[in-house]
Amino acid sequence: MKRTTLSLIAGATALAAVTGFAALTAPDGAAAPEAKATTRLPVERAGLVCPAPSTSEVAETQYTSYTPTGTAAGKAAAGKAEQPTALLRTAATAATADGTAKKPKPAKAPATVTAPGKPVTAEADGGSVPALTGAATGTLAPGWTVQQTTVVPAGGARGLLGLSCGAPDTDFWFPAASTGKDRQDYVHLTNPDDAGAVADIELYGPEGVLKPEFPDGIPVPAHSTVPVLLPTLTKAAGQRDVTVHVTTRSGRVGAALAAADDKLGSDWISPAADPASTAVLPGIPADATAVRLVALAPGEEDADLKVQLVTASGTIVPAGGGSLHVKSGMTAAVDLPDLTRGAVGSLLLTPSDPKKPTPVVAALEVVRGKGENTEIAFVPAVAAVSARATVADNRAKGTTLSLTAPGADAQVKVTASAGSEGGTPVSRTVTVKAGTTTVLTDLVPGGLKGSYALTVEPLSGGKVYASRTLALPEDGTPMFTIQTFVDDRGTVEVPTAHQDLGVLD
């Protein structure tokens, strides 16, 4: 089979809002009272970065842009979503398909959202679609999300690749990467700012840190993208299980990791949640034929983890995989065969000894299908939805929403938006019992035409973790992708002054 190499770049999921206040001094020299009270206000601007989808000429990409309705959006000042602009590729990349850099041809930017509550879609086909950046302001900023879905029907990097576009940051973790000969994994760094950035990429294998080839960091010029093939970062390549840590010395970057397996297919690896002693990896498909857990303890202590599967009927210990020992600074992995046994489930990692909590990062490599008809996707550990989270580009058939409440009973509101080409939004209140995973496949807008967005809002009770599986089978291959729900940070906490600090005579 002729190999088609993907060159992908993307950003992490985060929204930024900046607030500030000055320290004031009273006339008698005493410090003025601190403003301890706070209030939450909607963000006024949200920026996102989308990846260059593929280098395959047969790639078909759909962008879906959406802002949910709600109180946060309603309080924001009037505004608009700015049309995304194409990013430039740097000439000094070392990770294109043929080892050289090439400039992408101009491409139409994704359609712009004009009002909250209705998705807008656009298509871009071929292998020269550039990375894109954009911003939403005013009523369109709180919760603005863009989903990028790419189908590569043939070649060694075939697959359904899904990614929720995100904003730049300074710190990212990517478990479940690889420098093995059967994988081509690229970490892509995108700098949307006016000033250059310098990034460090650390690789952790089963025996510890892999010696870097670029100790001075990787420059990422302003308004540019640098894709880097993982094996070129170290002489100690050939590792199946690798955890990638991206940080910046200066500036910010968007980061995402593209994984392409010679036999299994391809997909994005989104950034995992920050290191924590408990990790939840929601929404493993019911028909998964292989599941591999990859974890790293980045601190100075080893981690002993209890591995449990959260199912529709309760939390159980999976056969042959109830524990995992993770040595400090070393990537550990374990196969979990026959994990789901025909029912959607979520993986829960907790300290074996509650008195010895050790932070870890984790992700799952999930395979569906057998033989030549296989497809791969990844589920990173994700934080609980605290206020609201959205995943766009859902279809009438093939969409599965998984909601997990590992601790206590929880109630959430789930809304299926209007369709991109028509349809009436529908909402449902869902109760997720403690220690279970609830699955929804039938929440679809009335009279749906096109695609729609799913929004999850906690109402009461314990923490809820969520993911969406999109399955689009093609020619006997069970193509699928899984996106976790990351809180949209549609509001920001700002201090409230306790007294009127006017001008004194």
Characterize the structure shown.
The chain is mainly beta and 505 residues long. It contains one helix and 38 strands. It has one helix at 71-75, and strands at residues 38-42, 45-50, 60-66, 81-86, 88-89, 120-125, 132-137, 145-152, 159-164, 171-177, 183-191, 197-205, 208-209, 218-220, 224-229, 242-250, 254-261, 265-269, 279-284, 288-296, 303-310, 315-316, 323-326, 331-335, 345-351, 361-370, 373-380, 389-394, 399-405, 410-416, 422-424, 426-432, 436-440, 446-449, 452-461, 465-471, 480-484, 491-495. The strands form ten sheets. A five-stranded mixed beta sheet has the order 5-15-11-17-18, with no helix packed on it. Strands 10, 12, 13, 14 and 16 form a five-stranded antiparallel beta sheet that branches. A hairpin with a 2-residue loop joins strand 12 and strand 13 (208-209). The protein is globular, with a radius of gyration of 22 Å. The termini are far apart.
- Tally of DSSP β-strands: 38
Q: What is the average per-residue confidence, as pLDDT, rounded to a whole number?
A: 85
Q: Work out the radius of gyration.
A: 22 Å
Proportion of residues in extended strands: over 45%
- Spatial separation of the terminal alpha carbons: 82 Å
The outline comes out as globular
What percent of residues adopt helix (DSSP H or I)? Answer: under 10%
Structural class: mainly beta
Largest sheet report: 5 strands, mixed
Count of helix runs: 1
Uncertain stretches of 5 or more adjacent residues: 1-33, 72-76, 88-102, 499-505
Spatial strand order of the main sheet: 5-15-11-17-18
